From TrEMBL:
<keyword id="KW-1133">Transmembrane helix</keyword>
<feature type="transmembrane region" description="Helical">
    <location>
        <begin position="54"/>
        <end position="76"/>
    </location>
</feature>
<feature type="transmembrane region" description="Helical">
    <location>
        <begin position="20"/>
        <end position="42"/>
    </location>
</feature>
<feature type="transmembrane region" description="Helical">
    <location>
        <begin position="108"/>
        <end position="128"/>
    </location>
</feature>
<feature type="transmembrane region" description="Helical">
    <location>
        <begin position="180"/>
        <end position="204"/>
    </location>
</feature>
<keyword id="KW-0812">Transmembrane</keyword>
<keyword id="KW-0472">Membrane</keyword>
<feature type="transmembrane region" description="Helical">
    <location>
        <begin position="148"/>
        <end position="168"/>
    </location>
</feature>
<protein>
    <submittedName>
        <fullName>Uncharacterized protein</fullName>
    </submittedName>
</protein>
<feature type="transmembrane region" description="Helical">
    <location>
        <begin position="216"/>
        <end position="238"/>
    </location>
</feature>
């Protein structure tokens, strides 16, 4: 007999468990829904300041909300199917969405379905990055600064979104490389966003950024805290062997709230 259960050695980490996946996906949906409500209630103030930024935030939040709701629907439908088969109980392991690994692919997902899901993920990421890039052009409005922002950050956002298309290949090494490239691009963008925000608020326009009237300082503090949090998470996520699909949604929700508070 063994002093411990040897099978437990092969059990996935708790971050890959079904309860964590359901909980974090629900948190992302709740954060995004709350952001949409705030956007709608503040539209009369937000729209005159920057119509393009308002439209981008609204589109990005709506797309992320649709993605979160679709994820929950797929999880629940998968669990309903599993509960009708032996051993008539729910699985410990999180539902793989979409099932790109050769070990987890199933007949319920067609190639068109996988492509559509990855396209939705790419659209979510691209819209959120575009929203953040456009927000930086409001902080740095000169023509030269805008060109530099678009030239430096635009290609990184496009590369990050394009990696979703690469992941449709079943080659494990190619999929892993796509994850790494995507994580590096997202971390670089997050670092540049945070550095630009802190530079604007702490050095260039300190008096304007930390005014106490109208809650300006509170919004700035919230945006800075979320920027630091999202940057830390993205950098910790780069070398991680375990890739959590739900973490991208959480990061996107933090980034959207950062743009809104900023």
């Amino acid at each position: 007999s063994y002093p411990f259960d040897p099978i437990l050695h092969y059990r996935p980490g708790f971050g890959h468990s079904l309860p964590v996946q359901v909980l974090l996906t629900a948190v992302v949906v709740a954060l995004t829904a709350a952001l949409l409500i705030h956007l709608l209630f503040t539209a009369q103030y937000h729209w005159p300041l920057s119509p393009l930024n308002f439209v981008l935030q609204l589109c990005a939040a709506s797309t992320l909300l649709v993605s979160g709701v679709a994820t929950i629907r797929v999880i629940m439908s998968t669990l309903a199917g599993e509960s009708r088969q032996w051993p008539y109980m729910l699985n410990y392991v999180a539902v793989d969405i979409p099932p790109l690994s050769p070990d987890t692919q199933n007949d319920a997902w067609t190639t068109a379905g996988l492509a559509a899901w990855l396209l939705m993920d790419a659209a979510v990421g691209m819209l959120i990055q575009m929203t953040h890039i456009q927000f930086l052009t409001l902080l740095y409005p000169s023509a030269l600064e805008r060109r530099l922002i678009y030239a430096l950050l635009g290609p990184l956002a496009v590369a990050s979104a394009a990696m979703h298309a690469v992941r449709i290949h079943t080659d494990t090494r190619m999929s892993r490389a796509a994850f790494v490239v995507q994580n590096v691009c997202n971390a670089t963008l997050s670092l540049l966003f945070t550095a630009s925000l802190l530079l604007w608020g702490l050095l260039l326009h300190r008096a304007r950024a930390w005014r106490t009237d109208g809650g300006t300082a509170s919004f700035g503090l919230g945006a800075s805290a979320l920027a630091l949090a999202s940057t830390t998470i993205t950098f910790l996520y780069i070398p991680a062997d375990a890739q959590y699909e739900w973490l991208h949604g959480l990061i996107w929700a933090l980034v959207l709230w950062q743009s809104f508070l900023g």
